[in-house]
Design a protein that fits this description.
single chain; about 240 residues; alpha/beta; Rossmann fold; about 10% strand; Rossmann-like_a/b/a_fold; 7-cyano-7-deazaguanine synthase; zinc ion binding
Length: about 240
Amino acid sequence: MKTIVVCSGGLDSVSLAHRVADEGGLIGLISFDYGQRHRKELDYARTCAKRLGVFHDVIDMRAVGSKLTGSALTDDVAVPDGHYAEETMRVTVVPNRNAIMLSVAFGVAPARQADAVAIAVHGGDHFIYPDCRPDFIAAFQAMQDRALDGYASVRLLAPYVNGSKAEIVTDGALHGTPFAETWSCYKGGDLHCGRCGTCVERREAFHLAGVDDPTAYEDPEFWKAATEGFKAEEVR
């Protein structure tokens, strides 16, 4: 299927782009600028598209993002340190983000003559983000089947939805993902901070996958204390 990947520039979505490219279906990437403090991730998405030789649409949604207040990703709210499975990480939720982005992507797909839209949500996101869960993926597909009825048929692909971050690292390595050319940190500094939830999750995933982590962290050891007491099966 001719597929557009929703690509933030992060480890998950870039790995997905390389997977779809290896399978021969990738025609382009779509990214969203919603005013996120770590918008430098968009540069990594742009680099990914260039590397894979496909188009890259960046949708300017800053006006919409400015209304989605209360999140540490868009407001002047501190990004918490710690494990992704901690309750404090709920402050990183951007309300309805995936539903909004996917709605736009499903509008772009017929215009680009794409058969599918792929998104890299995974099992580790379920605890924090309701629009990353399997029932959301199924419900969104059902809604789009009706929204595009008689006009186009576009499938929503979410191959990682029941998997772990470590499994994405394993899959990314299999498909030659250049992990150093991805960005995860929510703080958006010069280096990955190594302390925010997504940095801790990233470092833990490489450890669990047994894959060397090429990421430079400001605090490369914090993840050990942050993950102590958490078992992978408890948070996936």
